[in-house]
Specification:
Layout (H helix, E strand, L loop, with lengths): L1 E9 L5 H17 L3 E8 L10 E7 L2 H9 L1 H11 L8 E9 L3 E3 L6 E10 L7 H17 L5 E6 L11 E7 L2 H9 L1 H7 L17 E9 L6
Antiparallel strand pairs: 1-3, 1-4, 2-3, 5-7, 6-8, 6-9, 7-8
Helix pairs in contact: 1-3, 4-6
């Protein structure tokens, strides 16, 4: 399975109703395009900058399914114009996208309803020793054992095909609500172990300060699509 996560910046003047129309068009993609397992998006409820304002998730059967998607009439006629800044119908000023195949994932609650789907896309600083990166990866993947608020999750190294990326890793999870997210942030394992890899005041920091981060509401699991 090949997963794509996008962060969108809407064009000036675009309304939430218009973005809802974009998301409805995305949700229709699996009905029209073979190999698209799921596609949906939503408003980023914790966006820090305009570039992170909205998110879109897509799951493809494989890389060949992505190529089918790219050239399919539904993509060319219904989706691409909404994302292509050069098209007068576009709702999107810019976007960033990453592709990955999970290094590890767990879905203990595939039947979750009315949840938050959260994504963190980061870049490990160039020149970081490989053993440090591996230790950081280990700590990230240990979090679900220590933090009950994390329900379904996936961790991956970002692929450089089919789209080159400056980002190196994706940490994805599903939580019940904003209170659960606060429990995640306040966990001793999070702030006592994991956060040090991100904190510029700690010498062990290896994660670049700029990252993509957000969550949006979804009626059912996204990470558990199959």
């Amino acid at each position: 399975m090949l997963r794509r996560v996008m962060f969108l910046k809407p064009r000036d003047g675009v309304t939430e109703q218009q973005m809802d129309g974009l998301f409805r068009a995305c949700q229709e993609a699996p009905r029209h395009i073979p190999g698209v397992v799921g596609m949906q998006g939503g408003k980023n409820l914790i966006a820090r900058v305009p570039e992170d304002a909205y998110m879109v998730d897509t799951l493809y059967r494989d890389l060949a399914a992505y190529e089918t998607y790219r050239h399919h009439p539904y993509h060319e006629e219904a989706l691409k114009p909404l994302f292509n800044r050069a098209d007068p119908r576009s709702l999107v000023e810019s976007y960033d996208a990453v592709f990955y195949e999970p290094l590890r994932e767990e879905f203990p609650q595939p039947d979750m309803k009315n949840l938050l789907r959260r994504s963190l896309i980061v870049r490990i600083e160039p020149g970081t020793p490989p053993e440090q990166t591996l230790q950081w990866e280990k700590h990230i993947m240990e979090m679900p054992r220590h933090i009950p608020a994390i329900r379904n999750w996936a961790f991956a190294r970002v692929m450089q095909t089919p789209r080159p990326s400056v980002w190196t890793h994706a940490w994805e999870m599903e939580i019940q609500d904003a209170d659960a997210f606060r429990q995640y942030l306040d966990s001793p394992f999070h702030w006592g172990v994991v956060d040090r890899w991100f904190d510029p005041e700690w010498p062990m920091r290896i994660v670049a300060p700029r990252f993509l981060h957000g969550y949006y509401k979804t009626p059912a699991t996204v990470l558990g699509w199959r």
